[in-house]
Amino acid sequence: MPDTQPNPLDLEDLRRTIAEVFCVDPGEVTDETRFVEDLGGDSLLALEVIVALEKKYAVRFAESDVRGLTTLPRTYDVLADKLGAQG
């Protein structure tokens, strides 16, 4: 039976993906780092994060989900919920 989940959710891989979108070192994306306040995120970067995550994890985010993507742990939790709902 083929694996239907293209990428398993891994915190460190998620950290690297977010760091890549924000053009920062993964070490700068800590559990406490806020994407807007600490990394200078704006609506364009938010859209880039959403697109990258939707492609990588084959999920779709609702507008209500997007408001929760403010830190690494919150983003992980939203993704975990999305991926769990697919299973």
Question: What features would you describe in this structure?
Answer:
- It is built from 4 helices and no strands.
- Helix 1 packs antiparallel against helix 2 (43-57).
- It is mainly alpha-helical.
- It has helices at 11-22, 43-57, 63-66, 72-86.
- The relative contact order is 0.19.
Which terms summarize this structure?
87 residues; mainly alpha
Shape: globular
Overall pLDDT metric = 89
Low-confidence stretches: none
- What portion of residues is helical? 40-55%
With helices defined by DSSP (H or I, 4 residues minimum), what is the helix count?
4
Rg: 12 Å
- Helices and strands: which structural class? mainly alpha
User: Strand percentage, roughly?
Assistant: under 5%
Count the beta strands: 0
Secondary-structure element pattern, one letter each? HHHH
Largest sheet: none
- Distance between termini? 14 Å
Organism: Streptomyces javensis
Protein name: Acyl carrier protein
InterPro entries: ACP-like_sf, PP-bd_ACP, Ppantetheine_attach_site
Keywords: Phosphopantetheine, Phosphoprotein
Give a topology summary:
Elements: H1 11-22, H2 43-57, H3 63-66, H4 72-86
Helix pairs in contact: 1-2
Short characterization:
The chain is mostly helical. It contains 4 helices and no strands.
